[in-house]
Amino acid sequence: MKFTKKMAALFFATVLCLSMALPAFAGEWVFDGPESWKWWYKEDNGNRVTNGWKQIDGEWYHFKDNGYIDTGWINLPKTLRGVVEDYAWEETIQQWYYLDASGKMLKNQNYIGGYTDETGLLNEDWFFEGKFYRGNTNLEKVPAPPVEGAKFKNPLYDDGYSVDGQVVKGWEYVSPDYKTEFFNALSSALGPERNDFSYRIPQGAYTMDQPFLESTMIDWFRKETDNWSYSEDGTGLIHVHWVNE
Protein backbone atom coordinates (compact mmCIF):
# COMPACT_ATOMS: atom_id res chain seq x y z
CA MET A 1 0.00 0.00 0.00
CA LYS A 2 2.82 2.33 0.89
CA PHE A 3 4.54 1.50 -2.44
CA THR A 4 1.36 2.27 -4.38
CA LYS A 5 1.08 5.76 -2.88
CA LYS A 6 4.68 6.51 -3.80
CA MET A 7 4.12 5.33 -7.35
CA ALA A 8 0.96 7.42 -7.65
CA ALA A 9 2.76 10.51 -6.37
CA LEU A 10 5.61 9.93 -8.81
CA PHE A 11 3.16 9.47 -11.68
CA PHE A 12 1.32 12.74 -11.03
CA ALA A 13 4.60 14.61 -10.55
CA THR A 14 5.81 13.30 -13.91
CA VAL A 15 2.56 14.35 -15.64
CA LEU A 16 2.79 17.82 -14.09
CA CYS A 17 6.38 18.31 -15.24
CA LEU A 18 5.54 17.20 -18.77
CA SER A 19 2.56 19.55 -18.97
CA MET A 20 4.72 22.47 -17.83
CA ALA A 21 7.42 21.61 -20.35
CA LEU A 22 5.04 21.55 -23.35
CA PRO A 23 5.03 24.88 -25.23
CA ALA A 24 1.73 26.81 -25.39
CA PHE A 25 0.13 26.65 -28.82
CA ALA A 26 0.03 30.12 -30.37
CA GLY A 27 -1.70 31.50 -33.44
CA GLU A 28 0.12 31.13 -36.73
CA TRP A 29 -0.05 32.16 -40.36
CA VAL A 30 -0.95 29.43 -42.85
CA PHE A 31 -0.26 29.65 -46.59
CA ASP A 32 -2.52 27.75 -48.99
CA GLY A 33 -0.63 27.01 -52.16
CA PRO A 34 -0.58 26.13 -54.95
CA GLU A 35 -4.38 25.82 -54.75
CA SER A 36 -5.14 29.44 -53.85
CA TRP A 37 -1.77 31.08 -53.07
CA LYS A 38 -3.36 32.98 -50.20
CA TRP A 39 -2.70 33.45 -46.50
CA TRP A 40 -5.03 32.84 -43.57
CA TYR A 41 -4.55 32.93 -39.81
CA LYS A 42 -5.12 30.04 -37.39
CA GLU A 43 -5.86 31.13 -33.83
CA ASP A 44 -4.48 29.39 -30.75
CA ASN A 45 -7.70 27.35 -30.50
CA GLY A 46 -7.20 26.07 -34.04
CA ASN A 47 -10.02 28.13 -35.58
CA ARG A 48 -9.58 30.22 -38.72
CA VAL A 49 -10.05 33.99 -38.41
CA THR A 50 -12.87 35.09 -40.74
CA ASN A 51 -14.93 38.10 -41.75
CA GLY A 52 -13.40 41.07 -39.97
CA TRP A 53 -10.41 42.84 -38.48
CA LYS A 54 -7.77 41.26 -36.26
CA GLN A 55 -4.63 42.80 -34.79
CA ILE A 56 -1.63 40.48 -35.08
CA ASP A 57 1.82 41.44 -33.79
CA GLY A 58 0.79 45.09 -33.67
CA GLU A 59 -0.53 45.24 -37.27
CA TRP A 60 -4.16 45.24 -38.40
CA TYR A 61 -5.39 42.76 -41.01
CA HIS A 62 -8.82 42.26 -42.56
CA PHE A 63 -10.08 38.76 -43.34
CA LYS A 64 -12.67 37.65 -45.88
CA ASP A 65 -15.59 35.34 -45.10
CA ASN A 66 -13.45 32.37 -46.18
CA GLY A 67 -10.61 33.45 -43.88
CA TYR A 68 -8.12 34.66 -46.50
CA ILE A 69 -6.58 38.11 -45.92
CA ASP A 70 -7.69 41.12 -47.93
CA THR A 71 -5.17 43.21 -49.84
CA GLY A 72 -5.45 46.46 -51.76
CA TRP A 73 -8.44 48.77 -51.27
CA ILE A 74 -11.42 47.44 -49.31
CA ASN A 75 -14.78 49.15 -48.99
CA LEU A 76 -16.62 48.57 -45.71
CA PRO A 77 -20.15 49.92 -45.12
CA LYS A 78 -21.05 51.73 -41.91
CA THR A 79 -24.62 52.58 -40.92
CA LEU A 80 -25.31 55.97 -39.37
CA ARG A 81 -28.53 56.62 -37.46
CA GLY A 82 -29.96 59.78 -35.97
CA VAL A 83 -33.01 61.90 -35.28
CA VAL A 84 -33.38 65.49 -36.49
CA GLU A 85 -36.52 67.42 -35.48
CA ASP A 86 -38.47 64.20 -34.86
CA TYR A 87 -37.50 62.80 -38.25
CA ALA A 88 -35.50 59.61 -38.02
CA TRP A 89 -32.85 58.96 -40.62
CA GLU A 90 -30.52 56.16 -41.47
CA GLU A 91 -27.68 56.27 -43.92
CA THR A 92 -25.09 53.76 -45.02
CA ILE A 93 -21.72 55.26 -45.90
CA GLN A 94 -18.76 53.50 -47.43
CA GLN A 95 -15.45 53.58 -45.60
CA TRP A 96 -12.28 52.82 -47.53
CA TYR A 97 -9.10 51.25 -46.18
CA TYR A 98 -5.87 50.31 -47.95
CA LEU A 99 -4.02 47.06 -47.19
CA ASP A 100 -0.61 46.52 -48.72
CA ALA A 101 0.51 43.40 -50.57
CA SER A 102 1.20 41.60 -47.27
CA GLY A 103 -2.24 42.49 -45.93
CA LYS A 104 -1.08 45.14 -43.45
CA MET A 105 -3.27 48.21 -43.08
CA LEU A 106 -1.59 51.33 -44.47
CA LYS A 107 -1.86 54.24 -42.04
CA ASN A 108 -0.94 57.92 -42.20
CA GLN A 109 -0.52 57.84 -45.99
CA ASN A 110 -1.28 60.92 -48.06
CA TYR A 111 -2.68 60.99 -51.57
CA ILE A 112 -4.08 63.66 -53.84
CA GLY A 113 -7.32 64.96 -52.36
CA GLY A 114 -7.15 62.97 -49.14
CA TYR A 115 -5.23 60.76 -46.77
CA THR A 116 -5.49 57.70 -44.54
CA ASP A 117 -5.46 58.61 -40.86
CA GLU A 118 -3.92 56.83 -37.88
CA THR A 119 -6.79 54.33 -37.89
CA GLY A 120 -6.30 53.50 -41.57
CA LEU A 121 -9.59 55.13 -42.59
CA LEU A 122 -9.53 57.08 -45.84
CA ASN A 123 -10.37 60.77 -45.37
CA GLU A 124 -11.05 63.63 -47.76
CA ASP A 125 -9.50 67.08 -47.92
CA TRP A 126 -11.94 69.93 -48.45
CA PHE A 127 -12.36 73.70 -48.30
CA PHE A 128 -14.83 75.77 -46.30
CA GLU A 129 -15.15 79.55 -46.39
CA GLY A 130 -11.79 79.85 -48.11
CA LYS A 131 -9.89 77.72 -45.61
CA PHE A 132 -8.28 74.34 -46.05
CA TYR A 133 -9.54 71.48 -43.88
CA ARG A 134 -8.66 67.88 -43.36
CA GLY A 135 -11.99 66.10 -43.13
CA ASN A 136 -13.29 62.63 -42.37
CA THR A 137 -16.42 60.72 -43.32
CA ASN A 138 -18.33 62.69 -40.68
CA LEU A 139 -16.97 65.91 -42.19
CA GLU A 140 -15.71 67.28 -38.91
CA LYS A 141 -13.93 70.57 -39.58
CA VAL A 142 -10.32 70.14 -38.57
CA PRO A 143 -8.25 73.11 -39.80
CA ALA A 144 -4.82 72.07 -40.97
CA PRO A 145 -2.22 73.17 -43.50
CA PRO A 146 -1.68 71.08 -46.64
CA VAL A 147 0.38 67.96 -46.26
CA GLU A 148 4.14 68.41 -46.20
CA GLY A 149 5.62 68.62 -49.66
CA ALA A 150 2.46 69.99 -51.27
CA LYS A 151 1.76 73.41 -52.75
CA PHE A 152 -1.18 74.87 -54.60
CA LYS A 153 -0.82 76.01 -58.19
CA ASN A 154 -2.90 78.21 -60.42
CA PRO A 155 -2.23 77.50 -64.10
CA LEU A 156 -3.13 81.10 -64.93
CA TYR A 157 0.05 82.32 -63.29
CA ASP A 158 3.61 81.26 -63.99
CA ASP A 159 4.60 81.23 -60.34
CA GLY A 160 1.77 78.85 -59.52
CA TYR A 161 -0.04 81.30 -57.25
CA SER A 162 -2.92 83.69 -57.74
CA VAL A 163 -2.46 87.41 -57.13
CA ASP A 164 -4.00 87.34 -53.65
CA GLY A 165 -2.95 83.80 -52.85
CA GLN A 166 -6.53 82.69 -52.20
CA VAL A 167 -7.52 81.02 -55.47
CA VAL A 168 -6.63 77.36 -55.47
CA LYS A 169 -6.88 75.43 -58.72
CA GLY A 170 -5.01 72.31 -57.75
CA TRP A 171 -2.49 70.71 -55.42
CA GLU A 172 0.83 69.42 -56.61
CA TYR A 173 2.51 66.74 -54.50
CA VAL A 174 6.15 65.77 -54.96
CA SER A 175 7.16 63.47 -52.14
CA PRO A 176 9.05 60.16 -51.94
CA ASP A 177 6.43 58.93 -49.46
CA TYR A 178 3.89 58.25 -52.18
CA LYS A 179 3.80 54.81 -53.73
CA THR A 180 2.88 54.02 -57.32
CA GLU A 181 1.19 50.89 -55.99
CA PHE A 182 -1.04 53.10 -53.84
CA PHE A 183 -2.38 55.02 -56.83
CA ASN A 184 -2.64 51.97 -59.08
CA ALA A 185 -4.62 50.06 -56.48
CA LEU A 186 -6.98 52.98 -55.91
CA SER A 187 -7.97 53.41 -59.55
CA SER A 188 -8.25 49.64 -60.02
CA ALA A 189 -10.41 49.11 -56.94
CA LEU A 190 -12.93 51.84 -57.75
CA GLY A 191 -13.21 51.11 -61.45
CA PRO A 192 -14.61 53.33 -64.19
CA GLU A 193 -18.09 53.82 -62.72
CA ARG A 194 -18.93 57.11 -61.05
CA ASN A 195 -18.07 57.05 -57.38
CA ASP A 196 -18.13 60.11 -55.16
CA PHE A 197 -15.82 58.41 -52.64
CA SER A 198 -18.40 58.78 -49.85
CA TYR A 199 -17.68 62.48 -49.94
CA ARG A 200 -20.60 64.58 -48.70
CA ILE A 201 -20.55 68.35 -48.96
CA PRO A 202 -22.06 70.18 -45.95
CA GLN A 203 -24.29 73.15 -46.59
CA GLY A 204 -22.25 76.21 -47.48
CA ALA A 205 -19.06 74.31 -48.20
CA TYR A 206 -17.31 73.90 -51.50
CA THR A 207 -14.57 71.63 -52.70
CA MET A 208 -11.18 72.32 -54.19
CA ASP A 209 -12.82 72.05 -57.59
CA GLN A 210 -16.36 70.90 -58.40
CA PRO A 211 -15.21 68.49 -61.17
CA PHE A 212 -13.42 66.64 -58.37
CA LEU A 213 -16.83 65.18 -57.49
CA GLU A 214 -18.20 64.99 -61.01
CA SER A 215 -15.34 63.09 -62.63
CA THR A 216 -14.93 59.34 -62.41
CA MET A 217 -12.17 57.79 -60.34
CA ILE A 218 -10.60 56.28 -63.43
CA ASP A 219 -10.15 59.85 -64.70
CA TRP A 220 -8.85 61.15 -61.39
CA PHE A 221 -6.03 58.63 -61.29
CA ARG A 222 -4.57 58.11 -64.73
CA LYS A 223 -1.09 56.78 -65.36
CA GLU A 224 1.10 58.50 -67.91
CA THR A 225 4.41 56.80 -68.82
CA ASP A 226 6.25 55.98 -65.58
CA ASN A 227 5.17 59.06 -63.65
CA TRP A 228 2.01 60.35 -62.05
CA SER A 229 0.87 63.93 -62.54
CA TYR A 230 -1.93 66.08 -61.19
CA SER A 231 -3.44 68.67 -63.50
CA GLU A 232 -6.58 70.08 -65.09
CA ASP A 233 -6.96 69.75 -68.83
CA GLY A 234 -9.91 72.09 -69.41
CA THR A 235 -12.42 69.23 -69.61
CA GLY A 236 -13.11 69.13 -65.88
CA LEU A 237 -11.07 65.98 -65.41
CA ILE A 238 -8.43 65.82 -62.71
CA HIS A 239 -5.34 63.71 -63.33
CA VAL A 240 -2.85 62.45 -60.80
CA HIS A 241 0.66 61.20 -61.36
CA TRP A 242 3.46 59.88 -59.21
CA VAL A 243 6.86 61.53 -59.60
CA ASN A 244 9.51 58.86 -59.24
CA GLU A 245 12.81 59.60 -57.53
From TrEMBL:
Keyword list, A-Z: Repeat, Signal
Signal peptide annotation: 1-26
Residue spans of the Cell wall-binding repeats: 50-69
Keyword Repeat: yes
UniProt KW S-adenosyl-L-methionine keyword: no
Pfam family of the protein (one): Choline_bind_1
UniProt-recorded name of the protein: Uncharacterized protein
UniProt lineage: Bacteria, Bacillati, Bacillota, Clostridia, Lachnospirales
